[in-house]
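Hello support,

Our group uses your service weekly, and this is the first time we've seen a run hang past the timeout. The protein is Nucleoside triphosphate pyrophosphohydrolase. I'm not sure whether the cause is the sequence or the server load. Input pasted verbatim:
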Amino acid sequence: MTKDSDALVNDPDGGLPRLLEIMRRLRDPDTGCPWDVEQDFTSIAPYTIEEAYEVSDAIERQDWAELEGELGDLLLQTVYHTQMGEEAGLFSFDSVTKTISDKMVARHPHVFGTESREKSAEQQTHDWEKLKAEERAKKAEKGTLDGVATGLPALMRAVKLQKRAARVGFDWPSTDQVLDKIVEEAGELTEARETLSQTEIEEEFGDLLFVMANLARHLKIDPEVALRAANAKFTHRFERVEAKLARMGKTPAQSNLEEMDALWDEAKLDMKKLP
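Update from on-call engineer: The timeout came from a worker crash unrelated to the input. Re-ran successfully.
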């Protein structure tokens, strides 16, 4: 490696060029890290998803010091993919930044063009979706549901699929009809549990979840956010149950459902009293 490369890698003020050079060095087939050299897009993709969730987690906890580090980890994922893309002759970091910059300018004519900024949030959302539809058309994505990434978390993808279908009028006009469908699907799941195979039960359960995602959309609720909040609430309450058992000299394994259920109700009351 050249002295210039070593100097850049060790320059604390080297910024983005430093990070790009570090990744290039890590991926060097002769002198790089064997693990990094062996990776490809498929093997790195799960780490990219994980880092995005860790960014979200730091934001939710308002841990701004940790967020700085997590954003760095997420940026590294972009650098990783672009380095592999450059090695394969597919794209580079510069071409990726050009593509996203061009997209942002094109999608914001009210900021970078001649359109008026005097629009409601609803109108801006409508214009954004119209521009995205034009972009999909250029990619020969003609189907209503084309381009909804299959790698998204299932709940998130369900909402996106439903939004796309709703744009062309395939949607229940009222929340009451969605609630009726939930009752119907719950009944089918109950029946399936008694008479059908595990695969068929799983299918009916998926149908129920899909309609629940639709209900969230009609109520303008992000189901991912709602479920995370429910997870957090469950965690806090169960930790209180464990703490109460510990004061009794017990662990959950030494208790029983009746006792823990009573402690759970106490924990609910305790949390309601919190400011």
